[in-house]
Amino acid sequence: MLLIAAMPVMAKRHKPVVPDSLQRIVLNVNGIPLTLRRVEGGSFMMGGTIDQTDKDIYTDKPVHLVFLSPYYIAETEVTSQLWRSVMPERETLTPRGYPTNPISYITWYDCHEFLRRLDSITGLPFRLPTEAEWEYAARGGEKSEYFRFAGSHVADSIGWTNSNSGNWTHPVARRQPNELGLYDMTGNVSEWCEDSYSAYQSGAISDPCVCDTGSYKIVRGGSYDDCVANSHISVRRWYTPETSRGYIGMRVAMTLPNDPMMQQSRQSDEPEQLPLAKSVRLKGRKLKFQLVPAEQPYYISEEIPAALWRKITRQAPPSTWKGLAVGMSKGARLRFADQCSREADQVMRVASAEQMVLAIKQGVIPAFQSGKTMDAQAVRDTQRKRRNNKGLSTFTELFGVRLPKPDDPVLLRYKTEDDDSRPLRLVIR
Predict the structure, then answer these.
(1) Matching CATH number, 17-263, of 1.10.260.40, 2.40.400.10, 3.10.290.10, 3.90.1580.10
(2) Which ranges in the chain are annotated with CATH 3.90.1580.10?
């Protein structure tokens, strides 16, 4: 018997091919170039996921599933010279001697006046990015490598923070871009978003925007004035829309109304409704599954209790840990999945190492940690390797050289399906 939760999630059945001419758009705005990058629609876990922080920060919790439609976002923050080409009479405190530094000392209302004039110059519907669009783009969209900062685990290689900025802004695009080719989404100046502040809610949501006249507006991205520890992608800040600070600027976004691929998507790609969670009843017990956003979405179960293992197999597991079945061989796990499939009349598979790692990185499930997680010496050796590479990367990435990212000691044990010391999880489509 299959029980389906009521929370729907949007997912695309087909992914249209987008021509190169729509991947990167370069505009001439009164003699100043403005470049935008296309961000393909997709789903992601928004908020303080495992790759972002191990601190319990309530403002970026709960982690929740977000689906976004395609949009465009500027390659760089709005520069002083672009601002003055659109708003020649609107002086700011940003010195004229730094034309390619990001504009700052602008209010949320100033941003909207800039956008209104930019619309009239270009004939295109520019706007501020929503908070969800900003975070998805900073994470690298569909190309995300799950970095803590926008393009790297080393903040100084991709942005200007108080550890390397000299307490001032710097010309845009002087550090490495992230996976989508976007610059300075970590550091330099923070960036106004369209949304008013609102606490996150659990559950899935499509194209969210708290677009009202709230008292506080969202600012994202950290700045030259922020410490590295507080500059990871999921950090949220908010200010009154009248606020003007030297560390707050803007980046423009746009949804192209006549984008042929978006039209094709609307006409030929009716979105499929996927529930956020499912439950399967096995031998009178309800086994819960959660959706993992991916190009091929799947559902991953809770850890298999020892009691369910006994009911399905009519045998006790080799050992238990906190009521969970552990110690089963690979063959025994596969046989258990087959027995569950027959019982539920639905195909179930043992979660692969790749599926486990993706679900952990997405924040859908926690990493299993116990005394058996890894050999203690292996953990120390792996952690030492990570520290050494991180120290070297601080220098090598400044010169465009990226060292291989060392394995995470927690995720390392999921590289194989043969580990019988961790609890079992099942997967359904």
Answers:
(1) 3.90.1580.10
(2) 17-263
pLDDT tens per residue across span 238-283: 999 999 999 999 999 999 877 655 544 444 444 456 788 899 999 9
139-169 CB burial, b ≥16 within 10 A, e <16: bbbbebebbbbbbbbbbbbbbbbbebbeeeb
- Record the pTM: 0.72
Q: What is the pLDDT of residues 383-399, one digit of tens each?
A: 566 566 666 665 555 65
What pLDDT, in 10s, does the model give residues 140-193? Answer: 998 998 899 999 999 999 999 999 999 999 999 999 999 999 999 999 999 999
C-alpha closest to that of 187 among 220, 218, 139:
220
